[in-house]
Every structure is written in C-alpha cells, then in structure tokens.
Amino acid sequence: MNLFDSHCHLTAGAFEQDLEPVLARARAEGVTELVTIASDLDDAARALGLARETDGLWSSAGLHPHEADHFDDSTIAGLRRLAAEPEVVAIGEAGLDFHYDNAPRERQLECFEAQLSLAAELDLPIVVHSRDADAETAALVRDATGARGVLHCFTGGPELLETGLDAGWMVSFSGIVSFRRFDGADLVRRVPDDRLLLETDSPYLAPVPNRGRRNEPSFLPLTCAAVAGIRDQALETIADVTRRNARAFYGLD
Ligand SMILES: [Zn+2]
Questions:
Q1: Label partner for 172 (CA 20 to 30 A): which of 84, 182, 196, 242?
Q2: Strand partners, 60
Q3: How remote is the CA of residue 165 from the centroid of ligand 1, in Å?
Q4: Confidence of residue 73 (pLDDT cuts 50, 70, 90)
Q5: Interval between CA 65 and ligand 1 midpoint (Å)
Q6: pLDDT of the residue at 96
Q7: Which residues keep their CB under 5 angstroms from ion ligand 1?
C-alpha cells in the first residue's frame, strides 16, 4: 500500500538534524511520494533544492498568510521564476489566517488574490490555508475562475466545503481527524472520493497516538486509517484514491 503525503514542511527547522531517517521511515511505511510546501520565497528555494535531490519529492512556491506583510512587487516575479522549475508543482501555501492575524488582513487578502491569479495564469494548482476566514476564503474561491486548488488541512464549515467542491477544488485532511474532539466527521464524509487528499502537515498536527510529538510523513497511515474509519471505507481504498488524486492534482501523471 502506497501513500502520498500531499502537504508537509520538510524544510522546517524541526527536520534539520535528521531528514534522511525521517524520509527512510516514511518509505518504510509506504509513504513514497510527498510534496514539501513552502511558506516564503527563501523557503521555496530550499524546498526546490530538496526536491531536486530526493526521489518522490516535489515542492511548492508561495507566500503563507503569516508572511503576507512581506508581499511586495518582487514577490510574484520571484514565485514565477521558481514555478518555472519542473520540480515545483504548485503555488502556495497561500490563503487567509484570521485566527493568528500575524499579518494585517488587507495584506493577507492582497497576497492571496495575487497568488490565485498567478496559479490560474501558470495553470498550476494552489494550496490554500484558511483559518477562521471561511466567508472570505469562500468568496475568493468562488471568484477565482481558472484557479484550481486544495483546501488544505480542512477545518472549516459546510459552506466553505460546498463552495470548494462546487468550484471543483480538492479537500485535504490532516491528523486533526484523529483527535478525540474532532467534530467534522460529517464533512469528511461529504467529500467525494475523487476530491479527497491526505496530508500530514508535518512537523505540525501529529495524529493520535502521536499527538503532541513532532509529526512526520511516516505517520500518514494513522490519518489514512482515521479517514477510512470515518467514511466507512477500506484503508486500501483511501490510500489508493488519495494517491491517485494527488498525482493528478499536482500534474505528475
Ligand atoms: Zn502547511
């Protein structure tokens, strides 16, 4: 059984000391394909370097909403340059985070809209982070004609979910689905098989029973099992459809 981790952050400081064993453990657990997601331009350059030297690993280029204050005229040109590389398979992560508000909301909106346009122009998928910003994200997804994306680590409400599905977007679930207090099972069941992705979001959000520890891609089978349980489908089915979906979404076929 092979799995695709559609969203992890292998350039994070948490992996600085031991990335090789982390990747070896992932392969041993069947997690043979991964996309490492960048949060700013420097990170995207590092992610590209890592993708170039690692089998089964691709990268993204984008500016995270936490970094939206650094968005300026040179950002899009820099992302466009990185996105021309074959290992870069997506724009992002981009989006809105009105929970932490690490950057002013106006700047987050501007930065997100610019990346939606870029993704549409380059015909690349966009990886979207939305926290406490369902209505604003849904409005932009609805207006973003030509952009196709994923609502990553989905924790939003039914309206955002339906808007994303109506727009043809993918929905990705993380280890949060395994938490005891997770209350979104109904939404996990609403996503059609062909729109479903799995992710670890490593090093964050380790699934139960590793909750609180550093997350890593080898823990993805735990999230796969949790999603399979919620949806009452076989583990192998979820592994297989999410792997095929990720390959198609990132244009790897
Ligand atoms: Zn992430």
A1: 84
A2: 90
A3: 20
A4: confident
A5: 11
A6: 96
A7: 201
